[in-house]
Amino acid sequence: MANTSVVSRNRLIFGLCLPLAILLGYLLAEPLASSSLAIVTMVVSVLSVPLILRWYHPLLIFSWNATIYLGLLPGRPYLWMLLAFVSFLLAVPGRAANPDRKFLHVPAMTWSLGCFMAVVVTTACLTGGFGLQTLGSDRIGGRGYFYMLAAVTGYFALTSQPIPLQRARLYIALFFLSGLTAMVGQLIYFTPAFYFLYYWFPPEMALGQAMADYSFVDNAVRISGMSVGALAVNAFLLARYGLTGVFDLARPWRLALLLSAGFASTYGGFRSAVLFQVLLLLVLFTVEGLWRTRYLLIAIVTALVVGGGLVMFVDRMPLAVQRSVSFLPIKVDPWVKMTAQSSTEWRLEMWRTLLPEVPNYLFKGKGYALNPQELSMVADLADRGTAADAAVAAAYAGDYHNGPLSVLIPFGVCGAATFLWFLAAGGWVLCQNHRYGDPALRTVNSFLLACYVTRIIFFFFIFGALYNDLYYFTGLAGLSVSLNGGVSRPCPELEPTMDGSES
Q1: What is the DSSP letter of 490?
Q2: Does the CA dihedral 322-323-329-332 come out positive or negative?
Q3: Cross-strand partners of 69
Q4: What is the rounded distance in angstroms from the CA atom of residue 73 to the CA atom of residue 68?
Q5: What is the spatial distance between Cα 444 and Cα 238, in angstroms, rounded to a whole number?
Q6: Which residue, among 502, 487, 470, has the nearest Cα to 117 in the 3D structure?
Q7: Within 13 Å, how many C-alpha atoms sit on residue 351's CB side?
Q8: Residue 19 pLDDT greater than 50, yes or no
Q9: Is residue 453 scored above 50 in pLDDT?
């Protein structure tokens, strides 16, 4: 005799799945329709709930550097933002249900982030609200507040549970290599049949290709996605093997891959990409203490070979590559040199305009909320005006291209003080884990510290934007805390007993 409970369950499954399959098949007949994409996304999201409940922490780590966004949601948030909130909301009841599942509490990080967000919220309330038009506001600019809230929430979600030591390498690969998803946008551009995937992969990554294809002049083809993906590969190599492992002459493929990825990153045409990698290597070289070893000679020889190759062949390389290294005293295409210099002058003009206004925002920051009509008028004037007018428009929109200004003008002295407190707390955490962490994690702890220090230097002296860069700092600190199970402490010294043994 058949088991009626089993039969009923099977019938229930078929009764739900078959109509759903018919509906999805009908919708996929017009896959680019917004209604079809919305329903398919909703169905996939519901089916993903069991996976999220089980794997929300590794999914968050994977999404942190992934270039994936949710184009069907208002504001088009990135995937890591959604998973940050979801992971935090899942971790809190998990902690309540199981007292053994405690958050990895680091008081210095908690207090500094809490005070910083208090300044941010207070500033928003005093300067016209959060400016989220998706929630009915008549002002714009709330994206910056949302980005910062997601970055802070993501830190607590990352530290909601420790990463097992035996899975550390897997999680490191998930965290860094997910940056390769930036290249998907480039690949989609070559296959128009898959343009609907731009609902999930930002089309901005292929903007440089599109501008070059539809330009009437011989423009530099800037492949942004390749630059981001190459940086992700180099970050993984250095986190996995360190400079000591990369310079291991018994495994020359590591150094070859590092140099190849470094060269590939120049196809984005970003001078900042080259500067960041050079600065990161110098900081990591110092953190690992290689300047006192034979690796110093290997590094010098490698730098001379790469530098010599640039001097000899750079003027025959693609224009995007030449633009990436145009800050060096080497011969590049005159047009490339001119565009790079104009970009620099544009930034300098904006900073000269902004500096006299900084004292006006020291005690009460400007915030991010903007009047859309005023912004539209400023943008129209910039389109019909000079480069100086364009710089003024960018400054009005909060696009300062400068780290200190992006903190001081929106949030004043209080915001700057609490932000510096947070940076110092994060640096202390990473330094402690580097010095006293598990020896098996020494390589990755060294890289995380070097990357954190490099990000700080880059933010203050080269290029920075607070709401865009905050998640870099919280992500590196959160990953370090999760990998090391908190903050590592020095082992207490053993005291000798009366009989000469140690206790």
Answers
A1: P
A2: positive
A3: 78
A4: 13
A5: 8
A6: 470
A7: 14
A8: yes
A9: yes
Smallest CA-to-CA distance from 282 within 268, 296, 263, 301 is with 296
Global confidence as pTM: 0.87
> Cα 59 from chain centroid?
15
- Biggest CA–CA distance in the chain, Å, is 88
Task: Return the structure tokens found at 150.
Answer: 């997601």
Report d(CA 130, CA 124) in Å as an integer: 6
Both structure tokens of 14: 């078929």
Q: What is the pLDDT of residue 209?
A: 75
Residues 6+ positions from 476 with CB-CB distance below 8 Å: 426, 430, 448, 451, 452, 455
CA torsion angle for 376, 381, 386, 391 (degrees, to 10)? -30
Q: In which band, very low, low, confident or very high, does the pLDDT at 377 lie, cut at 50, 70 and 90?
A: low
Q: What is the rounded (10 degree) CA torsion for 404, 407, 410, 415?
A: -140
Rounded-to-integer distance, Cα 368 and Cα 123, Å: 9
Task: State the Cα–Cα distance between residues 365 and 400, nearest whole angstrom.
Answer: 15
Q: Is 395 helix (H, G, I), strand (E, B) or coil?
A: helix
> What is d(CA 296, CA 300) in angstroms, rounded to the nearest whole number?
6
DSSP three-state, residue 84: helix
| CA distance linking residue 22 with residue 444, whole number of Å | 49
What's the CA gap between 81 and 65, in Å, rounded?
11
Q: What is the mean pLDDT of residues 317-327?
A: 88
Residue 58 CB contacts under 8 Å (≥ 6 apart), including other chains: 171, 174
Distance in angstroms (rounded) separating the CA atoms of residues 159 and 140: 32
Going by C-alpha positions, the residue among 84, 420, 75 that lies closest to residue 411 is: 420
